[in-house]
Input
Amino acid sequence: MRHPSLEEMQALTPTATALSQLDIWIAARSTPEALLWFRLQCQQISTAKQERDVYRAMGMASRKLGKLDLNLNGDELAEAGRLRSGFDPSGWSVDMTARVAFILASYAGDEAQFARQLDSIADSAEINELIALYSGFPLYPAAMAIEHRAREAIRSSMRPIFEAMAHRNPYPMQAFDEAAWNQMVVKCFFLDSPLWPIQGLEQRNNPALATILIDLAHERWAAGRAVSPELWRCVTPHLDVLGEAELMRVLEQGSMAEKLAIAKSLPGHDSKIYRLCQQQNLITAAKDLSWQELLEESH
Output
């Protein structure tokens, strides 16, 4: 199978374009025998349209292709971003990529049928297959027809499955309503899962979420438990309408990481909280820290 030219890629449907790009990445990291197997599976799945072929191929992917990380370079990650804004396969492996490709190859143009098939695959998949299935959501067709399945991922109590949807994935930001979005963010604090890999956290932040998280902070204070610094990232932007008393408490009694989180997420206008952060030199200290670095310093 030769690689399509740029002009040919532009003429493909989004699903075919994504499948072609995944093929290119797998081809660069596979033996000729493994690559032949992968391409034969894609061909069988796309022509026969039998769910059993998808199940079989997904189950054999690790044995046939291996589990090496893709380790995409800068140019390849740029190609990923062109497939869909925000698409980030930087943590994918070869077998994971193949599993997503098999699901893409099964699409026959019927959105409702594709959604039913995705449900069927998810209901019988083992954990690594589920992680691949949910990680592939940015590339799947029928985005709204499969939204209910994405919600199943964020209900999971298994952190790797939850994070396959919540982390480095543009689908929740673009498809979830406010209730589902808030459920996903709040669930992070119960699974001890970081917020910083979530895409669109600032854009989708909302007062209802801030209110829920303030209540959660009070519950944890009452139980003598620590509060994640990242919680304040979702509260501080709404300082004008809620949270001032809680933020004052953190600036007086909280950990340094919590104080830096408040300073880093403060609105730029003048306020009592802003002035207090300035007095403690928190704004300057927080400026050059990434959220990942800030969270790591708290541990």
Remarks:
- Residues 1-181 form one domain.
- The chain has two domains: 1-181, 205-299.
